Amino acid sequence: MEKQSPKSLWYRMCRWLKPDWIFVVLLTGSVVLLILSGQKTDVAPLVAAPLFPKLALLIGATVIFSAIATLGARLDRKHLDDYMFQMVANGAVIGIITTLFVNMIWEAGSGNLPPISKDDLIAVMIGSWSLGYFFYRWRGINP
Q1: Which residue, of 55, 69, 104, 122, is most buried by count of CB atoms within 10 Å of its CB?
Q2: Region for 142 from its dihedrals, namely left if φ exceeds 0, alpha if ψ lies in -120 to 50, beta otherwise
Q3: By the 8 A CB rule, do 126 and 30 touch?
Q4: To the nearest whole number, what is the mean pLDDT of the chain?
Q5: What is the longest distance spanned by two Cα atoms in the chain?
Q6: 37 and 126 in contact (C-beta within 8 Å)?
Q7: What's the rounded Cα separation, in Å, for the pair 67 and 58?
Q8: Phi and psi (nearest 5°) for 2?
Q9: What is the pLDDT of residues 67-125, one digit of tens each?
């Protein structure tokens, strides 16, 4: 009889750390963030910043964080199966599109709607990414 080798601690921990649990935590956190951000106001006075430094910072941050996200996605793709990676990526697309539409509606109705804060938008993005992931998890990526 061959003796089976015990599974490593890392392997056993990774079995429990699944995207399902991570997205449940993210969805719960986004609801908490919406509740907490609704209790405070962060209306900042409008101060026009010089255009060049602001553009340089935004462009630089966009390029740098896009490169980091691309490297991170490559690492995820190596360690996740293709189906799981597609669910996470498609959920992220749903999150971005939903956040853009919510922001667009809020801007269009800015006279009639209460102001939306940056925390509200972050909560919408995290929550919609989690919901997008679960929609794909429930119905599959190729219905």
Answers
A1: 122
A2: beta
A3: yes
A4: 79
A5: 76
A6: no
A7: 14
A8: -90, 140
A9: 888 887 777 666 667 788 888 889 999 999 999 999 999 889 888 888 888 888 999 99
Structure tokens at 38: 């609704």
Whole-angstrom distance, CA of residue 38 vs CA of residue 47:
24
Which position has the token pair 């709607």? Answer: 113
User: Could you tell me if 132 and 95 are in contact, meaning their C-beta atoms sit under 8 angstroms apart?
Assistant: yes
Q: Which residue has the tokens 């390029």?
A: 63
- pLDDT of 42 > 60? The answer is no
Mutual angle of helices 118-139 and 82-108, in 10-degree steps: 140
Question: Looking at the chain, how many residues does it have?
Answer: 143
Of 102, 112, 122, 108, the C-alpha closest to 42 is 122
